[in-house]
Amino acid sequence: MSVIPKLSSSLNQRDEIANQELALEIIQAEDHDAVKELIENLGSSNKNIQSDCIKVLYEIAEQKPEIIASYDEEFIALLQSKNNRLVWGAMSALDGITNLYPDKIYDSLPKILDAADNGSVISKDHAVSILIKLAGNKTYHDEASILLLGQLSSCPQNQLPMYAENALPVISGELKTGLLQILQSRLDDFEKESKRKRVEKVILRLMRKE
Asked: Over the chain, what HEC string results?
């Protein structure tokens, strides 16, 4: 039975409840046929169907990524979509499967970072999360850490505290000095004192490790 009639837009619902319930249903049943149908309908002529399908897929990615992990190439392809909802939804799904297929995600970093640079804040959030996960992997630590520092040096000031806090556990060795220098150089960026203080706390933790 098709899952399309269970989508929020098919039910004339403006919220995401039906999509979230469908994701949970697919997870519990490990329904790979349903996932395949959702993937196929990412190319639907109906943008509401597209949006609902990507929503269900990234909900699955957050909770049980192994069910959708084999579709990494489809998600990578979506990063070039003109539909921003599909772009950041695909980025969310890729974030979810990074720890399962780090090699494939690493190989796709140029496309991921290009989409982040040209996309929404949500896209950038997930791209940074992907880099943090890769930096936590011994195989990709050095290269991913350098790319991560690049993101922290140029990211919007509103995002910097969260990125710095999340990056701290995976940055090691001489790269800690690089992170420290970036954060110190950006302390004057902040309009909100609360965000500045969060970065100052990361700086203090880095200095204690020196």
From this structure: CCCHHHCCCCCCCCCCHHHHHHHHHHHHHCCHHHHHHHHHHHHCCCHHHHHHHHHHHHHHHHHCHHHCHHHHHHHHHHCCCCCHHHHHHHHHHHHHHCCCCHHHHHHCHHHHHHHHHHCCHHHHHHHHHHHHHHHCCCCCHHHHHHHHHHHHHHCCCCCHHHHHHHHHHHCCCCHHHHHHHHHHHCHHHCCCHHHHHHHHHHHHHHHHHC
- Half-sphere exposure (Cβ direction) of 41: Cα atoms closer than 13 Å: 23
Closest alpha carbon to 53 in 13, 4, 5: 4
Residue-number span of the structural domain to which 205 is assigned: 136-210
Q: Is it the case that residue 209 has pLDDT exceeding 70? A: no
Span 146-163, pLDDT tens digits:
999 999 999 999 999 999
Is 189 a residue whose pLDDT tops 90?
no
In which band, very low, low, confident or very high, does the pLDDT at 80 lie, cut at 50, 70 and 90? Answer: very high
116 domain residue, yes or no: no
Residue 99 tokens, joined? 């720890």
Any domain includes 208: yes
Share the mean pLDDT of the chain. Answer: 95
Q: Judge whether residue 208 has pLDDT over 90.
A: no
Domains: count for the chain: 1
